[in-house]
Amino acid sequence: MDKTSTRKIVIFDDDEDILSICSYVLEEQGWEVHTFTDCNNVTEKVSGIHPDVILMDNWIPDAGGIIATQTLKKTDALRNIPVIYFSANSDIQLLASNAGAESYLAKPFDLHQLEQVINKVLINNNN
Predict the structure, then answer these.
(1) In the CATH hierarchy, which top-level class contains the domain 8-126?
(2) 3-state secondary structure at position 66
(3) pTM value?
(4) What is the residue extent of each domain of the chain?
(5) Contact of 40 with 62, CB cutoff 8 Å
(6) pLDDT in tens, 10-39
(7) Cβ neighbours around 33 below 10 Å, total
(8) Are 117 and 22 in contact (CB under 8 A)?
(9) Cβ–Cβ < 8 Å for 10, 44
(10) 121, exposed or middle or buried, with CB in 10 Å at 0-12, 13-18, 19+?
């Protein structure tokens, strides 16, 4: 990854604590972090930023993570942005698959797992 270009990530989660922790950790690593507490107008939100990665919560108002992810994947300009689905739901793998997400992260997660899954989708996306 070119060090001169800032990597951008969008996090959709209605839990302010998760948003602040993830933002803090990722900003420390040089990411430009954008957070939203709902997924309304998801295509407009993502189009305005055009991130390298999206973290999508399952239980996010109003439509929910599955619909939001499917909407992004149906949009030509946004479909190639990798989505990491994250949830405390025990069916996280199935939910991520139904949503069309590239990867998933079960909550609670540690920050090392967060980094690993982000790096993995970035590598896979660049191939």
Answers:
(1) alpha beta
(2) helix
(3) 0.93
(4) 8-126
(5) yes
(6) 999 999 999 999 999 999 999 999 999 999
(7) 19
(8) no
(9) no
(10) buried
